[in-house]
Structures are given as C-alpha cells and as structure tokens.
Specification:
Region (Disordered): 432-548
Number of strands: 8
GO cellular component, one term: plasma membrane
Shape: elongated
Helix content: 40-55%
Largest sheet: 4 strands, antiparallel
Biased composition (Polar residues): 517-528
Distance between the termini: 99 Å
Low-confidence stretches: 1-6, 428-533, 540-553
GO biological process, one term: regulation of G protein-coupled receptor signaling pathway
Mean pLDDT: 74
CATH topology of the largest domain: Regulator of G-protein Signalling 4, domain 2
Keywords: Signal transduction inhibitor
Structural class: alpha+beta
Length: 573
C-alpha cells in the first residue's frame, strides 16, 4: 500500500485509517459489533448501524458529547472509509435504521491504486452503461459527466471502450456475492470522489506539481557541501536556547493581557470613545489617525510598553524627536528615519539616498554625525553593490539599541511625556458626541428661554414695546425639550398665506439685529391691504398624560413676514 505523493495526504487521514483498523477487529479485541445481514447473502456480508458506530467511538475515545461522536462518525463516512448500504445519506445518525460497511483499503482516499482521475471515471461510467440498465443505469448527473468526458477524451474514446469491455468481461467470471460487494464498493468510491451536485465534497485535489519524483530525489542527494551545511545547522540548533511549552504559554498570556486594552477586537468594552465595529461610529479611527494633533490616552500609554511601540507610531516618533532635540541627540532618530526611507525607496533613488546618508551622518565632520563604534563603521563603509539597500542596517541596529537603552527611559520620565499624557487624558471626552443626558459640561449648557418672542442671538431680557405678541407665556417645564423659534424651523409649521398687493411684498414685521447689544429695531413695512400672517407655535406639554389632558391647548400668535425674511445669523447689511 503505497501513498500517492501527488495527493494531499495528511496526518488526519492516517489517524482515520488507524481508527478503521481498530474497528475492524473482532468483538473480543474491542472491535465493532458486526451484525449479519438477513437475506440471500447473509453468510457473506456483515454490517453495523449508526448507533453501534457512535457507541464504539464514545467508548473508545471517552467522548461524553454525542454531537462530537456523531460528527466524527459522519467524517469517516464522508471521506469514504465507511459507506451506507442504501447510498441515501452520508450523514451518520444515532439510530438503527441505516446499515454501514467498511470500505476496502483499495478504495481508501489518496492511495496509488485508488486514484480518482478523469480517465478512470470515464471507464467506470462506460462500464456501467454496458451492463444491465435496470441495476446499473446511470443517473442524470452521471450521464452529463459522461458526455463531457467523452468530448474531452475524444482521442481516447477507443481506449476507454476497450478497457470497459475487458472489465465487464472479468466481472462476469466472478461469483455473485463477490460481484455484488465489488459493485457496491466501487460505487461508494466514486460517490465520494465524484459526488452529485449540491452535496459536500471533502476530497479536493491538491496543487499539481510540475516535476517528477526522480527530480525530487536528485535534489536530496547528499554531497560534501550538503553534509557540511547540515552539520552547521544542527550545531546552531544545539546552541539555541529552548524554552518549555509552559513558559512560552505564560509569555503569550502575559503579552495578551498587556495589549488587550489597546485592541478593539480583544476588548470591545474598554475602547474609547466607542468600538467602531459595534457602534458604527468612526470617531475611534479619526482619533487614532496618523495626522491627528493630539493623540488619545491609550495611544500615549502604549508608548510606555516598549520602544518598538513608540518608534513604530508616527506621532510617537515625532514626539520622541522633539525630546531628542532638547537632549542634543536628534541625529540618532533622523538617521533611523532616513534608513527606513531607504528600505522603502524605489531602485532609482537608492544610490542617491546611500550617498546622502553617508555624507550627512557618517563622514568625518559631517553635519549630523552619529556616534557608532569603529567596527560598525567599517562594515558600513564597505558597500556591497548587491546589498546597497541594507548596507546601513548594522549602524541602524546600533543606533536603535542606543536610543532604547538610554534616551527612551529618560523620555518616559521627562516632563514632556507627562504633559502629553495629561493633555491626552481628556481627548476622548472632547470627542464623545453621544453623551446625551450625561453629567459634566453638557448639563451646564443653557437651554433656550421658554419666554415667547425671544430669538437666538438675542441676549436682552427686555422686550421691545412694538413686539406683536399676544397671550401670556406658557408654563416653563425645565425637563422638557424647548421649541426652537429660529426661522430655520418655521417652514415645518402651518403658515397661513394671505394674498398681498401687486408689489408682491407680504406685510409683517422685519427684525434685524441692532448695533446695540440689548435693543431690537423693529422696521414696519407699509404696503397696501396690509394683513398679518400668523404662525401657531404649540406649547410644550408635560410627559404625564393626566396633566396633558387637563392642560388647555393654546397657541401663540407670532407676527413674522411670509417672505423676504432675514435670519438672525445673517446679520445686517
């Protein structure tokens, strides 16, 4: 039994094969309970039910959940290690209505003798078409597949027919029980590898290889150089420190706990101001943009975890550069940024950037000469043409470690970092747009006065004597939202239009802001047949239904012009 190297044979298939071998043992060796099928061939064939299979899996692998055992049994059936006798369903159920049999190892998945290529499938369909139509007739999807294969392999049609006739001739020589069992096994094999449309296909072919096994074996041939490389690799593997799995697991848990608060996917509740994947609010992305003026509190706190988090953030790198200017060592971060720019630069700019970095940072008496040891400087000066893009990596690593061990710790203790953290502490609160009814500064904002006749931008508490307002002021309810009296909302109210003079100007009062802050100028527009256009503004009702019923529905008549109105925010000409 040779494995097919062209198929994706995995350890999972090997485990399923071992499971089938244990099931096929006798009942005394903890195997499956087999039941003889009643009928003509009761002495030759044995089968088992789905309940027997699930019970054996639960007992053998100590599985308590019946759903897990049922899923494992269905997997064995879908991969073709067992098959149902009636071929109706390949989902194993915990009952005794359906019988199953073991598939012969010849038809197990990914075996050399059981490959399911298209030519063998065409021979199988041709063979069934030559036999009894009532017992071995092709189904609709098989007829369609047969027609397509005959068109594809039109040059091999004669070969397919000859092979099919020879196999039919060999089948006729077998005994009737063997013939019946072989037909079922072969049909179950193709039912798994060429399933009907709409059913699950677990056996997908892997990627095709464009080289032969002999070529692979030639690549594995050992020579003196190959053995030398293998010895060096094994020596380095022995010198490499190895950690226990428990220690590695603790490190991963610690890392997860440390970064959990900074990841919206890991901790959705602590994300400020809100999680964008839950609330559909993009404020979190806007507050954490790379070009924002003031970073958020979590973003600044993350810089204190490691130097890599600080240097990988664009704002953090800028703030760190501002700190290094005070320390008179800004050339380190400038050199680091320039080398990063070199790594991402196109090929046409590499040489220019290499000469610029060497002239500004590495030459003797350079404008921003960096402090590196002589050994690292010698490695950088000897430029390899094929590795120009990464020639400054030793110097960059040296500068990185220097900033990490010296400047980074002093930056975290500096007043600049503390002030930035205090400034960023209130940043999420300023960007919180949905704090309705909350405490804080939102409650201190004054609501519009309920007195009738007062407009926005009117700071005067005194009323003008010429104001045309009738009826008394309604009762003020501080807990209810007040009606807006600006002209921007008046179009939604019921405005009773009246016919005007031929000039087209409607009568009314035209108000504008006066030059004095506490007075209002009322301009009377005199036209013929002057009539007033009144707007009815409803009074606010209390929430309580009983009080609402007891209140008298009164409206306030406000005289405003019907057209050519100037809004308060537009100012005077």
């Amino acid at each position: 039994m040779v494995l097919n190297i062209f198929q994706p044979y995995s350890p999972a298939h090997e485990k399923m094969e071992k499971m089938i071998l244990e099931m096929s043992k006798s009942e005394n060796d903890n195997g499956m309970i087999m039941r003889a099928k009643r009928g003509i061939f009761s002495d030759s064939f044995q089968s088992f039910t789905g309940a027997d299979l699930i019970e054996w899996i639960k007992r053998r692998y100590s599985i308590q959940d019946i759903r897990e055992a049922t899923s494992l049994a269905s997997m064995l059936c879908l991969y073709g290690y067992i098959y149902p006798v009636d071929f109706r369903s390949y989902v194993v159920k915990d009952d005794r209505s359906t019988e199953y049999r073991f598939q012969t190892p010849y038809y197990w998945p990914y075996k050399t003798d059981g490959t399911a290529d298209s030519i063998k499938y065409a021979i199988y369909l041709q063979k069934r078409s030559l036999r009894n139509k009532q017992k071995h007739g092709l189904e609709d999807y098989e007829l369609e597949a047969y027609d397509k294969l005959m068109k594809v392999f039109c040059d091999k049609k004669e070969f397919i027919e000859i092979q099919a006739r020879e196999q039919v001739h060999e089948i006729k020589k077998r005994r009737r029980p063997d013939k019946f069992l072989t037909d079922q096994q072969e049909r179950a094999f193709w039912r798994v590898n060429r399933p009907p449309p709409g059913t699950t296909r677990c056996l997908e072919e892997g990627p095709k290889r464009y080289f032969q096994p002999s070529q692979m074996e030639a690549k594995r041939r050992k020579n003196k150089e190959g053995y030398r490389l293998e010895i060096n690799f094994l020596r380095r593997a022995l010198e490499k420190p190895r950690l226990k799995f428990s220690k590695v697991f603790d490190c991963y848990c610690m890392w997860n706990d440390q970064y959990k608060a900074y990841d919206p996917f890991m901790d959705a509740t602590s994300t400020q101001p809100s999680n964008p994947w839950i609330s559909d609010d993009t404020t979190y992305w806007e507050a954490n943009a790379h070009d924002i003026v003031t970073p958020t509190e979590l973003r600044v706190k993350k810089w204190a975890i490691s130097f890599h988090d600080l240097i990988s953030d664009e704002i953090g790198r800028y703030e760190f550069a501002e700190f290094l200017k005070k320390e008179y060592s800004v050339e380190n971060i400038l050199f680091f940024n320039k080398v990063e720019e070199l790594h991402k630069a196109p090929v046409s700019r590499i040489k220019d950037l290499v000469y610029e970095i060497h002239r500004v940072f590495l030459d003797k008496g350079a404008e921003r000469e960096i402090n590196i040891d002589s050994k690292t400087l010698e490695e950088v000066i000897i430029v390899d043409i094929s590795k120009e893009k990464y020639v400054f990596d030793p110097a960059q690593e040296h500068v990185y470690l220097l900033m990490k061990k010296d400047s980074y710790t002093r930056y975290l203790r500096s007043e600049q970092y503390k002030k930035l953290l205090e400034k960023a502490h209130s940043q999420p609160i300023k960007r919180r747009f949905f704090n309705f009814g909350g405490s804080g500064k939102m409650n201190k904002r004054q609501t519009p006065s309920p007195k009738l006749g007062r407009r926005r931008d009117s700071n005067s508490s005194d009323r003008d004597a010429n104001s045309d307002i009738s009826l008394d002021s309604p009762v003020h309810h501080p807990n209810l939202p007040q009606h807006s009296y600006s002209t921007g909302n008046l179009k939604e109210l019921d405005v009773r239009q009246t016919p005007t003079a031929s000039s087209g100007a409607s009568p009314g009062l035209l108000r504008r802001k006066s030059d004095e802050p506490n007075t209002l100028n009322v301009i009377h527009v005199s036209t013929g047949n002057r009539r007033k256009s009144n707007l009815e503004v409803p009074n606010p009702y209390p929430v309580n239904n009983e009080r609402r019923k007891s209140d008298i529905s009164t409206c306030v008549n406000i005289s405003v012009p019907s057209s050519n109105c100037v809004a308060p925010w537009e100012g005077s000409d």
